[in-house]
Amino acid sequence: MISRAITLFLFLACIGFSARAELRIEVTKGVDNAVRVAVVPMAWRGPGTLPEDVADIVGADLTLSGRFETLPVKQMLSLPNEPDEVFPRDWRLLKVEYLVIGYLEPGKDKAYRLHFALYNVFKQEVEETQVIEGDSDELRDMAHYVSDEVFHKLTGIEGSFSTRIMYVTATGPVDNRRYQLNIADADGHRVETVLRSTEPVLSATWAPDGNRIAYVSFERDGRPGIYMRNLETGEVQQLTRFEGLNGAPAFSPDGKQLALVLSKDGSPDIYVLNLETRRLRRITRHYGIDTEPSWTPDGKHIVFTSNRGGQPQIYMISLADLSIERLTFEGDYNAKASMLRDGSGLVMVHRRDGIFHIAMLDLKRGRLTVLTETALDESPSIAPNGSMLIYATLVGDEGILAAVSIDGGVKFNLPSSEGDVREPAWSPKKRKIFVPISK
């Protein structure tokens, strides 16, 4: 039998306590030299009214990033929708550096056609202009696309507003919990519940294609098993359900393999499951606890947590020869690590002065930087653009999701409108990719 202490080490604070509800955004820290941008209301040149305010969504996205200061509509001196309608003097008086302007009209084969432009006030010129089309239910996706394009143009970093986040919630009294696995837009809107269960749901993770997820569920006889769900078809496959632990699934970068933790042969060890052949390969063999695997970007190594040295630390194992290297030495607790996409650093849970924070280890310089200031921070997940990470934390007695930039300069909270949330995972792909009709 695995002791309660080991179970706590493996599944520390995995279960959340909330109802299905949208997340709201609260920016708590932005950069000091935020770029001043005005997102002008976009005209609708068609019948009726639009179900979504595209400009409002774009403005909220840019504000959310913490890198931009957006001008309230009520302070705007004019409302241009095309570049030749812009009076630069009006915007210079308001100290606005860039305008996002545009309009929508009915499309030929699609429901909506969106024209938008990014205007540089001081240069008095258009920096970017595009036309995209979307179906009637894709207005939010079109708005997030505009945000991504503007963000990329002004920062040089690919935007992540079109991505999604996955998280676990729970409702009801302690003796009658009901668990949900939810997926929402990166701004917390459009929540979809993909799984409801009376048993815990843990360690949900995305496949690189963004169409599959894997998670741990106790839905059959109260025993843990690893399941894979196709989000497009709803098909669910049971991947493992061995005696003992079945946990911490992590897809390989090519999506063809799954790293996981099993204790079927004794102590918890790391295994790799080939999703095509279902061949299982044991990667670690140690009497200690090896858990929380994640892949290096090249797919040649696995980073994992182990207490083989007496305390939880981060190690890396080569899949070619199974050689192991210890990566963390600072502090008495480091766990749940993920490597940045460029391989330059590790994001992890780090304990300092008895408090759990999210930290980043620079692998080239060996420097560890604590990124968060809240308590009981856990489950960090890196955005696909590598500039932000989302994690679970406590603010007062409320469990919420929060995010922080890799340099620690931008921070925001995503509390649920009802209760607590836990175990976030940032999607690796954008929800919808639009191909511009013209640029």
3D structure, described in words:
α2 packs across α4 (about 140-155). This protein has two domains: about 5-25 and about 165-425, Neuraminidase (6 Propeller), CATH 2.120.10; about 30-155, TolB, N-terminal domain (Rossmann fold). β5 and β6 (about 110-120) form a beta hairpin. The protein contains four helices and 31 strands. The chain has helices spanning about 5-10, 55-65, 90-95, 140-155; strands spanning about 25-30, 35-40, 45, 70, 100-105, 110-120, 125-135, 165-170, 180-185, 190-195, 200-205, 210-220, 225-230, 235-240, 245-250, 255-260, 270-275, 280, 290-295, 300-305, 315-320, 325, 335-340, 345-350, 355-360, 365-370, 375-380, 390-395, 400-405, 410-415, 420-425. The strands form seven sheets. Strands 2, 3, 4, 5, 6 and 7 form a six-stranded mixed β-sheet that branches. Strands 1-30-29-28-27 form a five-stranded antiparallel β-sheet, with no helix packed on it. About 45% of the residues are buried. The model is unreliable at about 1-20 (pLDDT under 50). It is mostly beta strands and about 450 residues long.
